[in-house]
Amino acid sequence: MTRVHDRGGWPGSGPIDKSEHDLSWWEKRTDAIASLLMSPEKRVMRVDELRRAIEDMEPARYEQSRYYAKWLHAIETIMAEKGVLTREEIDRKVRELSARR
Questions:
Q1: Is residue 6 scored above 80 in pLDDT?
Q2: Distance of alpha carbon 77 from alpha carbon 79, whole angstroms
Q3: pLDDT band for position 1 (50/70/90)?
Q4: What is the predicted pLDDT for the residue at 21?
């Protein structure tokens, strides 16, 4: 079954943007958090879990999300699945941080 992340050979899909850009502070932080969670010292999650959580995203959300937004979604999903954080804790913190802006 072809899913939204399977891009190779889709007719009319056009070229994939491979241009480089400077990472924003939140992209750097997301990368650092993922690296820490996957580090040999922590091993809270594995790269295959990150990939699975990204590939399981709703197609519309996947299409609208940038690269590190997909990572952030996956980290949140995995932390909730493993009981490291509850979905409520994650949502509360997101609301708190959003209110600061």
A1: no
A2: 6
A3: low
A4: 87
Q: Which two tokens stand for residue 34?
A: 């993922």
SS3 of residue 32 by DSSP: helix
> Which 8-state DSSP code applies to residue 11?
T
Residues 6+ apart with CB under 8 A from 42: 36
In this structure, which amino acid lies at residue 54?
I
How many CB atoms lie under 10 A from the CB of residue 71? 19
Structure tokens belonging to residue 31? 């990368």
pTM of the model: 0.82
Q: Report, in angstroms and rounded to the nearest whole number, the Rg of the chain calculated over CA atoms.
A: 15
Q: Which of 44, 16, 26 is nearest to 101 (CA)?
A: 26
Domain coordinates in residue numbering, the chain: 27-100
The CATH code that applies to domain 27-100 is: 1.10.472.20
Single out the residue of 77, 91, 89 nearest to residue 34, CA to CA.
77
